[in-house]
Amino acid sequence: MAPEKATHQFKTEVQQLLNLIINSxxxxxxxxxxxxxxxxxxxxxxxxxxxxxxxxxxxxxxxxRIRITTDKVNNTIEVSDNGIGMSHDxxxxxxxxxxxxxxSEFLKAMEESKKDGTIAPELIGQFGVGFYSSFIVADKVxxxxxxxxxxxxxxxxxxxxGSYSIEEWDxxxxxxxxxxxxxxxxxxxxxxxxxxxxxxIIKTHxxxxxxxxxxxxxxxEETDSEILDNEGNPVxxxxxxxxxDETLNSMKAIWLKxxxxxxDEEYEEFYKHIAHDWNPPLVNLHMKLEGVTEYxxxxxxxxxxxxxLFNIERKHGVxxxxxxxxxxxxxxxxxxxxMRFVKGVVDAPDLNLNVSRELLQQDALxxxxxKNLVRKIFAMLEKMEKDKFETxxxxxxxxxxxxxHTEFENKDKIAAIAKFKTTKSDEKWVSLDxxxxxxxxxxxxxxxITGEDTKTLINSPxxxxxxxxxxxxxxxxxxxxxxxxxxxxxxxEKNFKSAEKGDLGISDVDDSKKxxxxxxxxxxxxxxxxxxxxxxxxxxxxxxxxxxxxxAQDMSAHLEKMMKxxxxxxxTAKRIxxxxxxxxxxxxxxxIYETNSDSTDLKDFVSVIYDIAVISEGxxxxxxxxxxxxxxxxxxxxxx
Length: 640
Ligand code: ADP
What we know:
The protein is α+β, with helices and mostly antiparallel strands. It has a nine-stranded mixed beta sheet with strand order 1-6-5-4-7-3-2-8-9. The chain has a six-stranded mixed beta sheet with strand order 16-15-18-17-20-19, with helices on both faces.
């Protein structure tokens, strides 16, 4: 039994999103039509795909089309399609909720970043608002739909004010029809019931949509009757107004055209159509390959990373076609995971139309195309102009770097384009080539340090000796960086060396001095036995009292913290406490220890030294209260 008419509340995030869209996209509101046409076109794609194997599915309605109907009297515009439609459950699932995980977090972040009550469209653009953009122009939206798999239709209706109703509806034909009850037109606003306005919008935003977007237009047509002059001679034919369907889009597959035939605006609109992005793309890559592996591809790099880039369930952005026939979207086999942000279309004329997702991976043609595309994308990135590349790198560098781990054969290519901020770069990006070129005389290795943010890293005590020697250090603050250096291993025959682990190989410890400190270090080690595995003279420090480091093969503190944050059960690895033998405080403590090793102050000093080492690398103290009590005591003594 089909459910009765029922009213439901929107999920909280839908209402939040609706408010955001309505408030921030008003000046851009004509794009609601692009969004509805794109959805209609996707729905037809889905049906066409099914029809390849289920031949009877189309019935006697095999002529795909998207229809726009306007009504000046009621002030409505309608978009209908004869695509796959939606069942009652699908409407409940797709409209009224937002399935994408991470949505609430994203919306919260947007709310917080909101200034002056408006939100930059490029922020919303990261989301792809689709159907909900109807509410920018309409104060009531009614959707009628019938799934190709259902007996009955469904009517959904909402005024965008928190709730919607849904009920069974008698809709004989398959597909979806969306009626927008438009808001009253204000002075200077575009009238969306106007034929010319619609023609223009479709031409601008949806020209390349593969199915005809039709609208009934009024045309003057000559009749057989004629107007006669005074002498009874025919002057002209009498015209009458007739209504006929006109196709508003050219439907040209833009990816099959030559580059010279496509304008920048057309590329941009096509990108917005396929990517559901409101921002223009950063660059496009349009190519045609002939020969053994034949294909055309039109790929884009977005200018902004989508908010869910690191969500594993996220769809990939490349659709596969064969001779203009849509085969599948979200085609993961065409590009590696670390290029999942690339959007576009690949058209392979020799591809078997019935190829299944499962078999795609083994398909030699697909494998060749993938290899080729990856090569072309690297070539494009290598020769991209500096500013553009850096915009790209800010957004997607962290993703590309995953590749050194997952696609070993391209790790050198990734290392060659990778850029980092360094101790010398003053927040600017430096490539590894530039780093190696600028190495100080006598410097053997590429030094790096990992952590959460470059500002803490640059002040890390581990870098003191390196900075004194004028060695540059890469400040790595992406979670993947730790794996990056591990997998790349070497660049231009230089080893990567952690500034916080193992021996830096730059300063020797004075052995006789070390002997003098042996006994104190043993004492410190005993006090901190649960936390540190060794106490030794520092090779890193110049000005600071102490720091924590690890053996060359140890996990860094940063990585350990990340693994724990990701829910990995991790024992806390003991670190090495490096003590600066040249620091006056250490000299003094040594003095106290030697005259009175039972002094109760010593214990407190050791505890404070350890905590300082933790704080200076941005770590968290076990007991901040205890630390401040001890420091308070020490200060009280000092100011006596
Ligand atoms: P998006 O298109 O980004 O997924 P929308 O909010 O525009 O987001 O649409 C949500 C879902 O509703 C779509 O993914 C699709 O499953 C369904 N949908 C929207 N419009 C149609 C339509 N005309 N025909 C069939 N399904 C549709």
